[in-house]
Design goal:
alpha+beta; six-stranded antiparallel sheet; four-stranded antiparallel sheet; 6 helices
């Protein structure tokens, strides 16, 4: 009985996360119609692409990226990372990279949002962290300044609140920071 209840709870959690993701994607789709759009919300960029792309060389500055639909592949040094709506990407320093959209179509375009991370805020955050919480054994990608991690309900909630400002432009100056 407990196993069935736990399974139902996990399915409900997954369904709730998918509904939140769908809602955020619909919101972003109302505002973006290009491969690169700097929104009125400071440091927030959105992207929509209707077909896969070839590799684009770029420099990732400190950033976190959330894919709302589609799949992207990023090569940083020898590491090749694929991520989609179930995961997010974060870079904590400037990194040369080659990125390409792997999965996109007219019916299901690639849709993503990115937040450039303020370096001063990042430095303050790192300085305030408990050394024990940081850990001593980081993966090779974390040592290199980037990682991919699973999307959580809390992360989607935060993104949802930030991107909701696109529909309330008068609130951006007060709530975006």
């Amino acid at each position: 009985m407990k196993r069935r209840l736990a399974h139902r709870t996990r399915r409900a959690d997954v369904r709730a996360m998918q509904e939140t993701l769908d809602s955020i994607r619909a919101q972003v789709m109302r505002h973006v119609d290009s491969s690169y759009y700097e929104t009125p919300v400071p440091r927030v960029i959105m992207s929509k692409m209707t077909e896969p792309t070839s590799g684009m060389v770029t420099i990732y500055e400190p950033v976190t990226c959330l894919i709302l639909q589609g799949t992207k592949q990023v090569a940083i040094g020898d590491a090749v990372i694929d991520y989609d709506a179930s995961s997010y990407f974060v870079a904590s320093l400037d990194l040369p990279a080659v990125g390409r959209v792997v999965e996109a179509s007219l019916d299901k375009p690639y849709v993503a949002a990115a937040l450039r991370i303020d370096r001063v805020v990042l430095a303050d955050l790192i300085a305030s962290m408990d050394a024990g919480a940081i850990g001593n054994e980081a993966s090779a990608s974390e040592q290199a300044g980037f990682a991919v991690a699973a999307v959580t309900p809390e992360l989607l909630e935060a993104w949802g609140g930030l991107l909701a400002l696109l529909d309330r432009p008068d609130d951006i100056s007060m709530l975006a920071p």
